[in-house]
Amino acid sequence: MRAAALSSFGPPEVLRLTEVETPEAGSGQVRVRVKAAGVQPFDCRVRGGWHPFGTPEFPLVPGNEFAGVVDQCGEGVTDFAVGDEVLGFTVLNSYAEYLVVPADQIVAKPEKMPWEIAAGFSGNAQGAHMALRELSVGPGDTVLINGAAGGLGTLSVQLARAWGATTVIGTAREANHEHLRSLGAVPITYGEGLVERIRAVAPDGVDAALDAAGPEALRASVEVAKDRDRVITMISFDTAKELGLRDWGGARSTERLTELLGLYNEGRLRIHIRQSYPLERAADAHRDVGSGHGRGKVVISVS
Ligand SMILES: NC(=O)c1ccc[n+]([C@@H]2O[C@H](COP(=O)([O-])OP(=O)(O)OC[C@H]3O[C@@H](n4cnc5c(N)ncnc54)[C@H](OP(=O)(O)O)[C@@H]3O)[C@@H](O)[C@H]2O)c1
User: I want to staple 185 with a disulfide (CB 3.0 to 4.6 A). Which of 139, 170, 178, 287 is the partner?
Assistant: First the structure.
């Protein structure tokens, strides 16, 4: 089968169209014919050599979320059948024509959900869900989302509103402000003067803050938070340690994904596709995500 694979770690150009062995579904697993795969900053770090999953074996296929059609069911799989349209999560391997995953890492794709949206839904939606649950976001809250225009940020803004937050302040470049307004956020520009701009919207401070942008955003969040236990980062872990912020963690699950798809079906979560790249241009997809800027989600269209 065709896959966008690494034969070594390195810059985006090491990600190349490669013939690799088609996997077979084992017991409790399904094989999915991949229609599209989401691209995460996580994948770019893996490509660059960050590989906390044992000894890496090349060719290594990145990609930790996907949507496609079940085409083989291993022994003991009863919840899915060949032909089912699904989306799901993995750690690696989704930039490929076929992927094998445990059957408890997929859920049914809503009938009208486009393939590219389905492919890019799991990672950011589940990340936003974990973070906002950890922050106990709920009715009446004023919430700060740093990095609000990205894949994670846009879903965090919408989820905070769906869970009853009264005011969601989202930081982004001005070019993305109108988009953030359309999602229900009060947009503000990041960079020098950030704390003053947040205070202009929330003079009493914010109830909860999520950093999906970097150390400066995390420092500003701590300055404006009423309770530092309601500040978390998805990215600036050294700074969090330096500031004495508490640790947190969470795991993806089909229960979480199903709850989020319920909100999608109700029209309360949407995803803007920034760009869809064909499999042979996976390196360009990585350059795009690696830029650190842009609105919404980058995906790879596989078949
Ligand atoms: N499941 C998850 O989603 C997950 C889990 C763990 C960690 N993370 C981490 O969370 C971060 C964001 O992920 P993502 O998928 O949303 O990435 P992304 O789609 O590439 O978005 C990055 C966003 O950051 C914004 N940005 C850049 N510099 C900024 C700054 N100084 N202040 C505020 N916004 C800034 C950019 O907006 P502009 O174009 O407006 O500059 C862009 O929209 C990544 O570091 C990722 O590794 C995500």
Answer: 170
CB proximity list for 1: less than 8 A, separation 6 or greater:
19, 20, 21, 22, 96, 97, 98
Query: Against a cut of 0.90, is the pTM above it?
Result: yes
Give tens-digit pLDDT for 41-71.
999 999 999 987 888 899 999 999 999 999 9
For ligand 1, whether the C-beta of 290 sits within 6 Å is: no
Say how many Å lie between the CA of residue 36 and the centre of ligand 1.
Answer: 21
pLDDT the model gives residue 52: 78
Q: Are 132 and 159 in contact (CB under 8 A)?
A: yes
β strands within the chain, DSSP E: 2-6, 15-19, 29-38, 65-73, 85-89, 98-102, 106-108, 142-146, 167-171, 186-188, 208-211, 231-233, 273-278, 297-301
Tokens 């990041």 belong to 190
62 lines ligand 1 (CB under 6 A): no
Q: Is the distance from the beta carbon of residue 172 to the nearest atom of ligand 1 less than 6 Å? A: yes
- Residue with CA nearest ligand 1 atom 13: 152
DSSP per-residue letters across 13-35 = GGEEEEE-PPP---TTEEEEEEE
| Cβ(294) – ligand 1 distance below 6 Å | yes
CA–centroid distance, residue 151 to ligand 1 (Å): 7
Which residues does the chain have with pLDDT short of 50? Answer: none
Residue-level pLDDT at 54: 82
Any atom of ligand 1 within 6 Å of the Cβ of 173: yes
Q: What is the pLDDT of residue 53?
A: 81
